Amino acid sequence: MYYYIKTFGCQMNENDSGLISTLLKSNGYLPCATPDAADIIIVNTCCVRQSAENRALGFIGSLKSLKEARPELIIAVCGCMSQQSDTAEILQKKYRQVGIITGTFATALLPQYIEDYATTGQRIIDIEARYDHKEIGNICPEPNEQQAYRAQVNINFGCNNFCSYCIVPYVRGRERSRDPQEIINQISCLAACGVKEVQLLGQNVNSYGKDMPEAGWDFARLLEQINQITGIERIRYMTSHPRDFNRRLAETIAALPKVCRHFHLPVQSGCDRLLTLMNRGYTTKAYLDKLAMIRQLTPDAAVTSDIIVGFPGETEEDFQQTLGFIQQARFDAVYTFIYSQRSGTKAAEMPHQISAEIKNLRLQQLMAVQNPISLARNEELVGTVQEIMVDGISKNNTVMMSGRTSGNKIVVFPKSEGLKAGDLVKISITAAGTWNLSGAISENIDS
Ligand code: 5AD
Ligand code: SF4
Questions:
Q1: Tens of pLDDT along 145-173?
Q2: Which end of the chain offers a freer environment for a tag, N or C, measured as fewer CB atoms within 10 Å?
Q3: How many Å lie between the centroid of ligand 1 and the Cα of residue 49?
Q4: Which ligand is closest in space to the CA of residue 46?
Q5: How would DSSP label each residue in 213-232?
Q6: Structural domains of the chain, ranges and CATH numbers in brackets
Q7: How far is the CA of 200 from the centre of ligand 2 (A)?
Q8: Does position 259 have pLDDT exceeding 50, yes or no?
């Protein structure tokens, strides 16, 4: 039996899909490259913004004709979108082609559900929030065939923050940390299989360990332990919450050579009034103080952020404050999002929702201010030598290779025969663009 997985959404979902794939393979199923060739199609969905939901629903809709042509086809919808009871109901009523609907708590049960459905033909729906069974992250992933040198590992699940715009706490549940020894064993096992870069995943990695206070673990201690694993050369993590990012963590990161010099610290808004309405738990001043601390402790750090435009009630004055803030913060890059009303969240009920026209305009204005800053930050690296981990042949130009700096910047350089994906190499940076850098293998052996 062949399976095909279509994934929408964030790295957490990408990782879950990888784990589903590992589970299915261990149950004897084989992957295939297109939905047409599959006996089982799994759609792993996202609901963080309406656009993600629309894309997933569009894809699920397009499977109707496949199911009509091949009634034995099994279609399963899992992930964040189906965890919402109103959406699960829509899927149930309007998308008859879907045989299995599971939420984020039942992902590890998918292989069992697929077998049950194949024998009975009875629709299966499981969107119960459970905290008492095997989580999908506890399954040891197979190293990814395309990127055998890089792996993602969940360290905690869920979120307790309830930022007023965000659906995640509703669909991923309360915060729970994985056992530290299990994480360390899993990463050691990945390292033994050739993984060199590990990306630690959690909705809020800084709160790692808070739900098991007697054990005495926090994120800094976990990083220290992972830093000792032989074979692992780089450690990345996402996502940090600025409120929980503290000096102990910044100092730990500064002292650990394998932890990358990249801080993704989503600020969401540069206006204190909106930060309060968003329930973020910090002020712009507190954020800027932490930024200064990071830059003082790790002067070569790249700092990136997320910003939402068009939050309910955002005035022109509020928005101008955000523009002023990003000029002050001088982020290396900003991921910009148009506010999307998510039903069930506090912000969805707030007055003065902003029109699509203004939201789009503000997005353009934000990018127009940030792009020259991103370019200037990248230009500061011209003339330096950066250690990069090779990703492989460049997508856009086959005579070039690309890789990433410790700060997570993409560097393109002429192909070199002896180099392969996962290798570390010193590159002299010769030119900068807004989104990437270019350079050549450094001849300077002292660097
Ligand atoms: N609308 C727009 N952007 C959102 N994000 C989260 N929820 C919403 C929403 N309702 C953004 C935040 C977060 C990123 C992953 O997605 O900026 O950091
Ligand atoms: Fe959503 Fe806020 Fe939790 Fe991030 S910290 S997942 S934005 S609720």
A1: 556 899 999 999 999 999 999 999 999 99
A2: C
A3: 7
A4: 1
A5: GGG---HHHHHHHHHT-TT-
A6: 2-126 (3.40.50.12160), 140-260 (3.30.750.210), 263-380 (3.30.750.200), 385-446 (2.40.50.140)
A7: 16
A8: yes
